[in-house]
Design the sequence.
């Protein structure tokens, strides 16, 4: 009874709790929060100093008593307390204002494929701790496929490749379930690290990861794309220890990223090989969809298509697909209950 009462007035939420970015979708309204998954904490008091974009801007620039934390690693909670605080901050932020006493929301949270029971429980507990009345966990790849408008409910094989910050998840989805999948710890963060490593080994330049990410986004590519580009790379000279700026070219950045790109392609091929023939036939005909921020790397769709012999499409707005897919589930309770992973708790307090 209370469940219904609260359900009527509370604004249910869908949260894409990513390694790089956290998005909050409010039922009936759309995406209301889209911020980096970064929190700055005061070590002396444990208080939050900043969350999201403002915390990310502090990365690498904090005095000793402030620590910036990325509480998720490869989609898995590595710092429970900070994740809980971050969720609480975001849930309260979107809940503020409408009613004098905002009822606690039902929350759908996206999770990676390779979570252990303990890790799954941590996501549930952190979301309850963040203020949820009821929590449903849904595999991100299914949400991403829904967000990309793939026919996830039908008996048709769809392949989704989600390239996030910490991991790439490759999945074959049919009838609202994941049939075959692979997950690899090679995605956006690893690409940034490859640029840092390249700068040190080839150019004698010590680079911060934020600078590496900027270069990747500005001129990074998986394949030549017709136009030649260059971009200033600012770092510290390995030999003199002094600041130095050099121009890097798209070819150099491509060289740095090639290993990550190769690993993603290899794993797509392996997933295709283990896919049952009927579903594989659907995928060869219909192609695969790239989602997540890594899908935006120039030429990645083309090089994957060339090496796998199947059509590849980049999802529209790939950074928000999972959040939009999870949001769709808020409007279809039966589908949500059918897709959600079994809860690690029997029941919540109020439902
Ligand atoms: P997560 O779900 O793990 O939080 P996202 O799907 O939000 O990850 O993607 C974040 C990753 O996408 C980051 O590593 C970021 O550097 C990368 N990214 C964002 N835009 C681009 C781009 N234009 N080219 C290449 N990588 C990008
Ligand atoms: Mg993601």
Sequence:
């Amino acid at each position: 009874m209370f469940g219904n009462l609260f359900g009527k007035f509370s604004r249910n939420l869908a949260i894409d709790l990513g390694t790089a970015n956290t998005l909050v979708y409010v039922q009936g309204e759309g995406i209301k929060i889209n911020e980096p998954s970064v929190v700055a904490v005061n070590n002396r008091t444990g208080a939050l100093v900043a969350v999201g974009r403002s915390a990310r801007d502090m990365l690498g620039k904090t005095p000793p008593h402030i620590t910036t934390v990325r509480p998720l690693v490869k989609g898995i909670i590595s710092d429970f307390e900070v994740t809980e605080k971050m969720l609480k901050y975001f849930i309260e932020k979107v809940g503020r204002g409408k009613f004098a006493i905002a009822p606690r929301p039902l929350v759908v949270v996206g999770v990676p494929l390779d979570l252990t029971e303990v890790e799954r429980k941590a996501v549930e507990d952190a979301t309850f701790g963040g203020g949820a009345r009821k929590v449903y966990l849904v595999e991100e790849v299914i949400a991403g496929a829904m967000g990309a408008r793939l026919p996830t409910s039908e008996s048709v094989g769809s392949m989704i490749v989600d390239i996030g910050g910490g991991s790439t998840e490759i999945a074959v989805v049919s009838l609202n379930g994941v049939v075959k999948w692979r997950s690899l710890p090679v995605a956006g963060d690893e690409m940034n690290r490859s640029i840092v490593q390249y700068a040190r080994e080839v150019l004698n330049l010590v680079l911060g990861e934020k600078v590496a990410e900027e270069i990747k986004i500005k001129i990074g590519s998986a394949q030549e794309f017709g136009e030649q580009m260059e971009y200033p790379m600012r770092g510290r000279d390995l030999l003199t220890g002094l600041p130095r700026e050099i121009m890097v070219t798209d070819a150099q950045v491509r060289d740095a990223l090639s290993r990550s790109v190769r690993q993603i392609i290899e794993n797509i091929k392996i997933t295709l090989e283990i896919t049952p023939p009927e579903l594989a036939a659907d995928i060869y005909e219909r192609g695969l969809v790239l989602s997540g921020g890594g899908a935006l790397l120039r030429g990645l769709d083309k090089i994957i298509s060339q090496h796998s012999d199947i059509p590849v499409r980049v999802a529209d707005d790939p950074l928000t697909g999972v959040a939009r897919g999870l949001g769709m589930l808020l409007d279809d309770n039966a589908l949500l209950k059918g897709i959600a992973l079994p809860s690690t708790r029997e029941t919540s307090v109020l439902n």
Q: What stands out?
A: The radius of gyration is 21 Å. Residues 3 and 351 are 5 Å apart (CA to CA). The pocket of magnesium ion (ligand 2) is lined by residues 16, 18, 140, 162, 164, 292, 322 (CB under 6 Å). The chain is about 40% helix and 25% strand.
